[in-house]
Design brief:
Structural class: mainly alpha
Shape: flat
Largest sheet: none
Strand content: under 5%
Oligomer: single chain
Distance between the termini: 44 Å
Length: about 120
């Protein structure tokens, strides 16, 4: 059996639909190019420790900014929930609070399970 036939038969077994040989070859070539670029960049960073440090600091700032953005989103959701509950009749607040808690607990549990 030729390599092309093996690849075609493998592609037919995938649940993602039919994959043709050309797509697989192009994807493999893209991965190879990415690997070469990564290798070249790593080499340049090893040659220039100052630039490596600068890049590391920039990445740390970027991650911190993304975490702050997430935290701000959580605070907005909390404030929005409080605002929404403030316009609800008192007799419904307790019921809605329980429902919100269930939803948030379920979502938070799901996120934590995926994280660990």
């Amino acid at each position: 059996m030729s390599i092309e036939n093996l690849i075609k038969s493998f592609g037919k077994e995938l649940p993602l639909g039919e994959m043709n040989t050309e797509n697989l070859v192009m994807e493999a070539l893209r991965d190879m190019v990415k690997d070469e670029i990564k290798s070249h960049l790593r080499k340049k960073l090893e040659e220039n420790p100052e630039l490596k440090t600068e890049l590391k600091e920039a990445i740390e700032l970027f991650i911190e900014a993304k975490l702050r953005e997430t935290f701000a989103g959580i605070k907005l959701a909390k404030a929005g929930t409080k605002l929404g509950l403030s316009v609800v009749p008192d007799k419904m607040v307790e019921e809605l609070t329980k429902e919100f808690s269930k939803v948030f607990e379920k979502e938070l549990s799901s996120i934590l399970e995926k994280s660990f």
